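Troubleshooting entry. Yesterday's outputs looked truncated, so today I'm pasting the complete records for two proteins to confirm everything comes through intact. If either block looks cut off, that's the bug. Protein one:
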Amino acid sequence: MIRSARVYLMLLVVVLLSSCGWAVRPGETLLDARDDFTQRLRWHDCNGAGRYLASEVQNAFLESCETDEDLHFVHVEPQSLDFSDDQRQADSVTLLEYYRLPSVVVKKYRLRQQWAYRQGEGMKQGIWQITSPFPELP
């Protein structure tokens, strides 16, 4: 009886210690955030895309996005992503293909953005936010 209790205790310690190593590094979650942002941008989901912008640039983006109903994205393609050494900041380049009504001519624009990782409180996972303002597309 005592021997089986020790075995169960050892198994419990192994499980608890192994779960400590499963914490996600910030750099691993940026790809999902960037892809979700670009798809929300493509589908003109202003509020959804706006969640990824830091508060200091968010309002300007939302105002521009909600009033520019003639802007339509045809294709959004992530091209590069460069992390800082500590993986808490990154620069991304995304190719945007779009047109603005009444024109149907598709234009291309390379969107350069700076992302920053905001640490969550306590045990909560942090989030990635865009810190650079969204440009006015030509």
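Protein two, checking that the full record survives here as well:
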Amino acid sequence: MRRIGFWLWLGCCPVASLAGVPEGLALAMRLAPYADAEQDTGARVREALADALGRAGCFAEAREMAMGITNYRRGLALGRVALHAAEAGDRGTAEALVADVGAAASAEGEWRRSRIEAYRAAVLASLGRYAEAEGILG
């Protein structure tokens, strides 16, 4: 933990150097011979890395990692990163990420959209925007 604090103090995040890893891991972890399973594995890896970067406070790197996801998991990853930013007190970053989460949710089908919107509502509630969060949840 001390080492992570040192890197954050320097203003860089060593985990960001893992940006090219998900595609390689997806190829190495073939779950099925289908392209969509391979793509989903890469998306899951990117989602996990974005979450880890968000927890470490590397919000820009986490957003970049999440934006590399090409399916509905982009919205889930952005939602988690936004929640980490809100919990860390970085209101400006959380607000910007909420807009990204909304855009990702609008591009998805109903059941996927509701999963993404749940994160959006949680972030809005964390930011004190309760009426908006309640409007999303219905």
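Both blocks look complete. Sanity check on protein two: The radius of gyration is 15 Å.
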